[in-house]
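hiii so um. not sure if this is the right channel but i have a protein structure encoded as tokens and i wanna go backwards to a sequence. like what aa goes where. can anyone help
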């Protein structure tokens, strides 16, 4: 852990070397129609990001040609096998030390508590570390990067439900927090309870709240608590905790609110309609739109104000929302090896 403490995970909006994504192929997870739909959405996301920074799609062996047919010429394909598309969770967590050298903080992926087959996805981080020639640093944790947010200035926030959970870690919340701080270079851990067992992730924080910058949080939540909706109850509990919390520098968090969309295209009860599950790449913010014209427009305007100087692109990626995630879940940034001058 001493070596790990010399590294820190940069804020997502810092310059990237490239974006990694995964080509979904598992017929244990999807039927053929659903698989084709999520593949098309993954290609749309990759092709959009590739207009702003290099993108590498991971796809193994016999799946390389199929991926290549849907991807633009700007997207590279690396022959690394995958099961599913969730590169935020099974991909590498890049960290950087004071000399500007990269490493991968290895948070071991076990299919969200062994809820899904993950033979190939569990090996993506070590395989990429070997290919890139960067150290693979053991964090002592099982979990997913989508379950924790870092503001790039020492503050982390997470839902306990997806970390202090025996399906991943048989450790106390305090010990897990210490290991997360060591892994990502933080000094302050903010926990909210979250919800266990209501979705495959046990409630990843990145579907509800994101750090926009040091000490600044964007949260998507309705004004009123719906006592019959566990997501509303838990989300407002997280909001109350964040309102009372301070950042690593001792200042209270700045919180920006964004309402949920209402009139959306999908009719799936478990659809993830999260604007905050966006991805920040070089020069752009890639976000989802859901067919609620007023809410979509408001989300675009707010994201544009939070990320001035970047293009905000909003995509219809409903098949991914119907699979339980969003654009942030499907992407993983590799920061530049040297910090910008």
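sure thing!! here u go:
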């Amino acid at each position: 852990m001493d070596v790990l403490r010399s590294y820190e995970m940069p804020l997502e909006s810092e310059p990237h070397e490239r974006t990694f994504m995964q080509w979904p192929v598992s017929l244990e997870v999807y039927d053929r129609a659903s698989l084709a739909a999520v593949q098309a959405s993954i290609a749309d996301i990759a092709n959009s990001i590739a207009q702003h920074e290099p993108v590498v799609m991971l796809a193994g062996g016999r799946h390389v040609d199929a991926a290549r047919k849907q991807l633009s010429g700007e997207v590279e394909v690396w022959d690394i096998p995958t099961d599913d598309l969730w590169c935020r969770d099974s991909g590498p967590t890049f960290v950087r030390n004071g000399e500007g050298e990269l490493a991968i903080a290895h948070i071991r992926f076990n299919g969200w508590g062994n809820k899904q087959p993950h033979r190939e996805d569990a090996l993506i981080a070590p395989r990429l570390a070997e290919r890139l020639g960067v150290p693979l640093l053991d964090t002592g944790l099982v979990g997913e990067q989508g379950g924790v947010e870092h503001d790039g200035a020492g503050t982390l926030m997470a839902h306990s439900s997806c970390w202090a959970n025996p399906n991943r870690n048989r450790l106390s919340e305090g010990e897990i927090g210490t290991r997360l701080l060591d892994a990502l270079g933080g000094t302050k851990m903010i926990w909210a309870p979250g919800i266990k067992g209501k979705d495959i992730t046990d409630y990843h924080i990145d579907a509800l709240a994101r750090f926009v910058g040091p000490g600044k949080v964007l949260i998507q939540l309705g004004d009123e608590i719906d006592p019959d909706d566990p997501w509303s109850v838990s989300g407002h509990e997280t909001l109350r905790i964040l309102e009372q919390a301070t950042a690593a520098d001792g200042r209270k968090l700045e919180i920006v609110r964004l309402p949920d969309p209402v009139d959306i295209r999908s009719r799936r009860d478990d659809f993830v309609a999260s604007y905050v599950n966006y991805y920040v790449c070089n020069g752009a913010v890639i976000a989802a739109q859901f067919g609620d014209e007023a809410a979509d427009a408001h989300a675009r305007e707010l994201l544009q104000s939070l990320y001035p100087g970047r293009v905000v692109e909003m995509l219809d990626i409903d098949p991914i929302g119907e699979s339980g995630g969003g654009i942030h879940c499907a992407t993983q940034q590799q920061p530049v090896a040297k910090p910008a001058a």
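oh and The chain has one domain: 4-335.
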